[in-house]
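Re: weekly structure request thread

Next one in the queue (124 aa):
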Amino acid sequence: MNEEGQWIVLMGLLVAVALFFLALIINQSALVGQTTAEGVLEFPKNDIRDLREAVFDYVDAAGALDPIERVDIEKDIITISLERKNAVVQFGNGTPQDVSGRWLRPVDIHYNNGVTVYNETVYY
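Done, posted below.
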């Protein structure tokens, strides 16, 4: 009986199974890279920058505003963020603190658009 044909078929089967597993691993690594790249693209960097700019402008002008105007501006920033960016926003400023010899006010910014949650405390 000739056994060489059986070895050839067996080796062909092993090579086919190895190629299948290699293709499966390569396919999974491509999916991981794609989802990671999508996560980076979905981060709302410009939305957060716009919010920070509006909050810092508010903090700069807060001393010259009366309490009713301050509340109105806070509500406007929160409403605009919700309507235009679909983001829930909260912010507030605390009492000035001594930071390295300078009196700075802590400003807390919270941003949540359902995908990204961003919290920051800035001494401004």
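Residues 56 and 124 are 8 Å apart (CA to CA). The chain has a mean pLDDT of 85.
Next request, please.
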